[in-house]
């Protein structure tokens, strides 16, 4: 009898695609990710279909676009009726373990208003079994620190202040107070090794989440000074944030409203005020956090080697979303720029891979991960799933009828930490956008704000909005129609293949079409 596969799904947080050495970021040192890229397939044009964390992870783990799962922002509940990867794995005999978090707010119809999960950004998605919790409010990690004998400060988050300082001025190369062996990345790694040692030779599925390189952008020694700011790529932006803000009202809102405090613990001032030197310093710290995660993955990979499980384990490496990192004078994951949505995806299957080390340029999306894993394990992909399996591209070229556009969405309705609705004179249900783009053009449609259109060949960093250009009117119309067609094709379809007939219930089984 053939041994069942193990699955290791690695989900890092806020790691953007252009910080992958195999895709050109040669200033970075990530030997373990490099190994994965050599032995697997790296997807060059991969996006998350939603930001920020909660919506991104909902799409990743349900295989649904934002317009269908409707967990549209952090804090917004995920409908309990949706199938997700954890539930689907249980149906085929796997016990899906999860380390980290999913930032999932529960369906209020399944609990009560006093449920403490409604006081945080989110909790764990139903169907997974936590073997290394971070949520809610990082209690799992801080409890582990205390158990290790580390004396927590009265404000627990102060562990991310610079060593010997009570304030942080912003971007810094000072080490944080917590040592690397007690960092959150080490915590997740210890939990993973504990779980894997406990499994023995039984087949397993593990969602291994890492919090980094998510802010606060401060790293433990020696990662704090592993990279020099001069090694980092310069930010892509207009000379001033005011010039940038003229492009669109939503961009103007964020440039005026994002503070440094969410990215450098306790810092003040506007994110748009960061100088190029400060951004390079921040990027050097970000790179250090990436290498710290890579070193931690090296410990997990070494365990798989030592126990003879490497060849029996399918590994999927990805991120929930990207990070603006000073580009367009922005920090965080917001809006419509590529930096927030383009993310890494590397897949190593079990056994020998015909395309090992290759880079695939097909347009792939986070909704493709769930069906890929289910197909690899012989499971059934739900009818409602918006993505498609990537297994064919691990062995050969992309299918001839594969999607020819990337699609993603962003909902910017009010949440407790950001309130654009009144500032933009919008209602809750008008505060959304969707994007379709290919190699040449990018179209951004807003529910109640002006559209955007970019010629990526002439303007790859999307500075010049051509939506109002008479010379581009026909193209704008065409891409708007393509966006509408995409939404019509992917309208919720859980039950649309059933119908009543004089002979009783009929279930149609349409052939699985390639994503469009």
UniProtKB/TrEMBL annotation:
Residues 5-378 form the Sulfatase N-terminal domain. SUPFAM superfamilies: Alkaline phosphatase-like. GO terms for cellular component: cytoplasm. InterPro entries: Alkaline_phosphatase_core_sf (IPR017850), HdlasePehA (IPR054912), Sulfatase_N (IPR000917). This is DUF4976 domain-containing protein. Keywords: Hydrolase, Metal-binding. Signal peptide: none annotated. One of its GO terms (molecular function) is sulfuric ester hydrolase activity.
């Amino acid at each position: 009898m053939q041994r069942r596969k193990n699955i290791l799904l690695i989900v890092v947080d806020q790691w953007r695609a252009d910080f992958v050495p195999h895709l050109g970021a040669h200033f970075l040192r990530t030997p373990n990710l490099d190994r994965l890229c050599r032995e697997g397939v790296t997807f060059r044009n991969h996006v998350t279909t939603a930001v920020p964390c909660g919506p991104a992870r909902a799409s990743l783990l349900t295989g649904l676009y934002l317009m269908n799962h409707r967990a549209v922002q952090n804090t917004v509940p995920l409908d309990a009726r949706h199938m997700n990867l954890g539930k689907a794995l249980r149906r085929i005999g796997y016990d899906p373990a999860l380390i980290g978090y999913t930032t999932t707010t529960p369906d209020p119809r399944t609990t009560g208003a006093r449920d403490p999960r409604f006081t945080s950004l989110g909790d764990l998605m139903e169907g997974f079994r936590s073997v290394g919790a971070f949520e809610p409010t990082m209690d799992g990690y801080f409890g582990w620190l205390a158990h290790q004998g580390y004396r927590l400060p009265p404000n627990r988050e102060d562990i991310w202040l610079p060593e010997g300082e009570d304030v942080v001025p912003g971007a810094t190369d000072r080490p944080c107070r917590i040592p690397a062996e007690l960092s959150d990345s080490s915590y997740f790694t210890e939990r993973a090794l504990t779980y894997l040692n406990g499994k023995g030779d039984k087949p397993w599925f593990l969602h291994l989440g890492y919090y980094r390189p998510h802010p606060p952008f401060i790293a433990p020694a020696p990662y704090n000074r592993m990279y020099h700011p001069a090694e980092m790529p310069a930010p892509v932006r207009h000379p001033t944030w005011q010039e940038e803000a003229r492009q669109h009202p939503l961009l103007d809102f964020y440039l005026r409203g994002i503070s440094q405090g969410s990215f450098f613990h306790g810092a003040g001032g506007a994110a748009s005020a960061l100088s190029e030197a400060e951004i390079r310093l921040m990027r050097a710290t970000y790179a250090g956090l990436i290498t710290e995660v890579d070193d931690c993955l090296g410990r997990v990979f070494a365990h798989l080697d030592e126990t003879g499980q490497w060849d029996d384990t399918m590994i999927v490496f990805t991120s929930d979303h990207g990070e603006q990192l000073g580009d367009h004078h922005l920090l965080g994951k917001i809006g419509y720029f590529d930096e927030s949505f383009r993310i890494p995806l590397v897949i190593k299957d079990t056994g020998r891979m015909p395309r090992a080390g290759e880079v695939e340029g097909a347009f792939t999306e986070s909704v493709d991960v769930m069906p890929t894993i289910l197909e690899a394990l012989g499971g059934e992909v739900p009818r409602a799933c918006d993505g498609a399996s990537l297994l064919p591209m691990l062995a050969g070229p992309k299918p001839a009828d594969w999607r020819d556009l990337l699609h993603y969405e962003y909902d910017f309705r009010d949440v407790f930490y950001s309130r654009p609705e009144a500032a933009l004179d919008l209602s809750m249900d008008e505060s959304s956008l969707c994007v379709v783009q290919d190699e040449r053009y990018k179209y951004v449609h807003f529910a109640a704000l002006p559209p955007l259109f970019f010629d990526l060949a002439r303007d790859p960093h999307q500075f010049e909005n051509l939506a109002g250009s008479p010379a581009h009117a026909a193209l704008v119309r065409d891409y708007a129609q393509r966006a509408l067609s995409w939404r019509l094709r992917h309208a919720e379809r859980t039950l649309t293949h059933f119908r009543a007939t004089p002979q009783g219930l009929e279930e149609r089984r349409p052939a699985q079409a390639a994503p469009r």
